[in-house]
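task queued by scheduler; priority normal; single chain, no ligands, no partner chains; default sampling; output format set to structure tokens
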Amino acid sequence: MTRCSPAELGVIGWPLEYTLSPDMHNAALVASGLGYRYERIPVAPSEVNLFVQKAQRHMLGFNVTIPHKHTLFRLCSETDELSRASGACNTVVFDEQRILGYNTDGPGLMLALDERTQFVSDGSKVLLIGAGGAARGCLAQLIQSGAQSVTLVNRDLTRAAELVAEMQPLLSGIHIEVCDFKSLRHADRLQLTREPEYDIVLNCIPADAAASLWPVVSLLAGRNTVLCDLSYSAKTTFLSARWREAGLPVVYGLDVLLWQAVRAYEIFTKKCAPVAVMRGALTDKCGKWW
């Protein structure tokens, strides 16, 4: 049975083998003198409901990662606009008897894009790889910011179709196509879009799986196509490295991780986040390459 952490804040997921969120948040909490602690908390899917019940008694809130974002959305008593649009939340706050849900993936994406590139969402063509919780939040944000068309690629075509069906009200008027990995790898035989050049390629699947898609994804990119690779580790991913070698603009997973954490910190504490401190914590852990 998963035990609730004595910490006031944390991140839950399953399996939660690698996360840099505690490094950022604890550095920020120390710098701010708040006295809170942020922990990594593995929670199995079968234990999410019980965890939330126990956490509500002593925690301020927590972040949510794979595979619980959709589940937590359903458990929250109130949610923000982006959570409702995407059906996923990654930040939960307890307020007396209320469970408040937020999605900071979308704002994190846009802040990272703004910092790194000159990307313009309005009228953009999006190639989205993945259909999980992060993909939901980022897709909703891009559409709300004016994206014109989306090609959604996922290993499980049924899951991708379910995402589109659930988000249908938001997708009204948006040109959207769905395909699986096999179809994408044979894109030279398909007409995935009328103009196979994308303004942004957004990867929301693990690095190893994304690496296998490089040959065809590279053919679908234009000279100014931005890659945003949400997968992250202490070194650059294969997809990000190849994109950068090709002279194309890259937004790293660490960029998005930083900015979604900044927003989450401000939701948790109701104080401005010490961005430089949080960035420094990531640099200390991963190096300055990004």
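post-processing summary
- The chain has two domains: 9-103+261-286, 106-255.
- The longest strand covers residues 221-229.
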